[in-house]
What we know:
Blueprint: E1 3-8, H1 14-18, H2 22-32, E2 35-41, H3 45-57, E3 61-65, H4 80-90, E4 96-105, H5 113-130, E5 134-139, H6 142-150, E6 157-159, H7 166-174, E7 178-181, H8 191-199, E8 205-207, H9 229-240, H10 244-258
Parallel strand pairs: 1-2, 2-3, 3-4, 4-5, 5-6, 6-7, 7-8
Helix pairs in contact: 9-10
Amino acid sequence: MRLFDTHAHYDDPKYDTEYPGGADRAITESRKAGVERIICAGTRPETNSSTLKLAEEYDYIYAAVGIHPSDIRFFDRKHDQTLLKKTEEQLAHPKVVAVGEIGLDYHYEETDRERQKFFFDSQMKIAATHSLPVVIHDREAHGDSFETVRRYPEVSGVFHCFSGSAEMSKQLVRLGYCISFGGTVTFKNAKEVKEVAATVPDDMFLIETDAPYLAPSPHRGKINLSAYLPLVVYALAEIRGTSPEAIAELTYENAMRVFKLR
Length: 262
Ligand code: NI
């Protein structure tokens, strides 16, 4: 079984403090579990740089670079244009396969939604200019996220760790977006995401860990690793009534196509 983890963050400092051997060991362990390729996603210029460093170090690691909606709070508004410019420069690296992660996160009340929308829109434009797919983070912002991607028909990509409804997933698929599933499909009470996982077309879904976050059951609440990706595969196989091997192969091929790796 060969696996493609389409979303992880191995530059996260959690690996230094919570995992013996750190990120390097976590990456190496994932190979033993059949993970042949990993996309690491940056969230602001600093983490984009550390992600690119990992992609230089490991030939099977690729990078997405972008500005995450939750990370813009680290910067003063007067630097917004500089931040975007810096991100666009980072896209020139040969291991970059997508603009991401970008999107909207309305989880926290105090968040500046207009500024998040400005960054999301600007980066959709950047993706269009560079003909790159996007990796989208949509947390509790389904309406606005959909409304934004709909305005850029020339862009497509993936909704990572999808948490919307089956109806929304159908509309996204129609726009050319893949739906990516992670640890949440293994959770007992995740009724909605399981419904999405049961109905999304074969050629329109991907798998991911979002490591070090969102560890699948039975590791829920602990540090996540790409080596746990088979747990996501088993859950999807059960939900879709097929074999783990079929899920692994489909999602591997889908990822290769979406991120233009051949
Ligand atoms: Ni992420």
